[in-house]
Amino acid sequence: MTKLINQNRLSIISLATISALLSGCGSSSKSEEPVQNTLTLPSLLVGEVSAISSNSITVNHHQIATNNADIEVDDNHALISDLKVGMMVEVETNGKEATQIDYDPSFKGTC
């Protein structure tokens, strides 16, 4: 019985020590430097358009600004309004926004 009580005490002391040590681990509420978003787009994305707005498209879970992009549909100049959800596109970027968007029906049939 005494051995069981000593094991329980040892377990409680060990848990208390671990808890005290872990409570000291953490981050302070002050940040010395602001965290900046350094996310950049891949230089080439090939995938299905899942969303379109007046100035961006979403491909492979990346929302891509299209303000300065050259858009082509079947090798003809096009507008963002010519793109449709479900089209398979190839998007070239400069890391921040689309520079070229190409849709070719041979990628995935017509939408």
Number of E-state strands: 7
Q: How would you spell out the order of helices and strands?
A: HEEEEEEEH
Mean pLDDT: 78
Q: Major sheet, described briefly? A: 7 strands, mixed
Total number of helices = 2
- How far the N terminus sits from the C terminus, by CA atoms, comes to 77 Å
Assign an overall shape.
elongated
| Spatial order of the strands forming the largest sheet | 3-2-1-6-7-4-5
In percent, how much strand structure appears in the residues?
25-35%
Helix share bin: 10-25%
Structural class based on helices, strands and sheet pairing? alpha+beta
Radius of gyration: 27 Å
Low-confidence stretches: none
Protein topology:
Elements: H1 2-24, E1 44-52, E2 56-59, E3 62-65, E4 70-73, E5 76-78, E6 88-93, E7 98-103, H2 105-108
Parallel strand pairs: 4-7
Antiparallel strand pairs: 1-2, 1-6, 2-3, 4-5, 6-7
